[in-house]
């Protein structure tokens, strides 16, 4: 646990409440007065969260402090086997047989695997998408032995910070989401939604739009590749243009089913800036439409 700078640390910052067994000394009540200030009868739920002091970092700010075991126990008897010990690295397999034996007799088996901040956090990325250690071996052994259905729960960190979605070249930050991806797409959006295959051909579309700027509308600059001819007005903000439908255009695409079965496909239209412009969104979704 770490504290914000210039804060005085208390003599005992944290204790584990599970270690305290002196009756009801941790029990307390919260008395909340709820007043209906509307014009109709209604039901409301008062939800109480725990929150650490503002000076403490790296703790959950609002939490009901429930574990997966707490949640599952509300629906039936839970037999818990800590198969990897207390180490997410899961380098030891000594407790795997115990998990297999429990799965052989359970009506349903829930396997929880995943990562913690040791493997994935804002300043540390993973080299692959695998879970650590022998977790996959645990999944396979327990799933093969299970008597009933098996549910796999993968818990990941995937922490997000306040950094913009846009790329930040000076920090080597490439930007988030498909909008900034310039590599080869292995599985494009919508892949696998149909058993058939489709080909596309462009029938017609607007090549260019002529816009007349008003007195309060401005041109903005963008960064071009070296040696590129710059137009007189590189960029305008389309939200500033309010002259009816002058920005509307149609895209006419012919979709041909070339597979052996009937199927439905979705035509997805993206916008893409000229290749000579740097540091702009690579792909922007404009619209989609299904066809059979």
Describe this structure in words.
- With 292 residues, this protein is mostly beta strands.
- It has two domains: 45-162, no CATH class; 163-292, no CATH class.
- It contains three helices and ten strands.
- It has helices at 68-73, 96-105, 135-145, and strands spanning 2-3, 56-57, 109-114, 150-155, 198-205, 223-224, 251-257, 265-271, 277-278, 284-291.
- A two-stranded antiparallel ribbon has the order 1-2.
- The protein is extended, with a radius of gyration of 28 Å.
- The protein starts with a strand and ends with a strand.
- The relative contact order is 0.09.
- Residues 1-9 have low confidence and may be disordered.
Q: Summary?
A:
It is built from three helices and ten strands, in the order E-E-H-H-E-H-E-E-E-E-E-E-E. It is mainly β. The chain has two domains: 45-162, no CATH class; 163-292, no CATH class.
